[in-house]
Amino acid sequence: MADSQSRKQESFKVSGEDLVRTVKKLIKEGNVRRIIIKGKDEKVIAEFPLTVGVVGALIAPVLAAVGAIAALIAECTITVERG
User: Fold this and answer.
1) HEC letters along the chain
2) d(Cα 76, Cα 59) in Å, to the nearest integer?
3) Which of 14, 23, 65, 82 is most deeply packed, by most CB within 10 A?
4) Where are the transmembrane segments (predicted)?
5) What residues contact residue 2 under an 8 Å CB cut-off, 6+ apart?
6) Which of these, 6, 25, 19, lies nearest to 74 by C-alpha position?
7) What percent of the chain clears pLDDT 90, i.e. is strictly above it?
8) What is the C-alpha separation between 31 and 61, in angstroms, rounded?
9) Number of other residues whose CB lies within 10 A of the CB of residue 76
10) CB 9 within 8 A of CB 79
């Protein structure tokens, strides 16, 4: 119960071309639990749960998926859950 209360969410809009760079930056921050990517219509396009200590080869598939999404959309909203 306390775990869900300690998590905070923030949302911001980015262009498709900035999506990969923004996700990389968020992952490097280290305190991100989940990244949700939504299209212009606010429908969830992708959701990536991240655990503490996820590095290297485990991040590569996430970044590949984000790159594919970025190629298909012009603008999106990223919702970040921190905890």
Assistant:
1) CHHHHHCEEEEEEEEHHHHHHHHHHHHHHCCEEEEEEECCCCCEEEEEECCCCCCHHHCHHHHHHHHHHHHHCCEEEEEEEEC
2) 21
3) 23
4) 48-74
5) none
6) 19
7) 39
8) 19
9) 23
10) yes
| Residues of the domain holding 76 | 2-82
pLDDT, tens digit, for every residue of 1-18?
Answer: 445 556 799 999 999 889
For residue 68, the one-letter residue type is A
Number of domains in the chain: 1
The Cα 43–Cα 83 span in angstroms is 23
In angstroms, the CA 55 to CA 78 distance is: 21
Q: What is the pLDDT of residues 55-67, one digit of tens each?
A: 666 778 888 888 9
Phi, psi dihedrals of residue 46, rounded to the nearest 5°? -155, 150
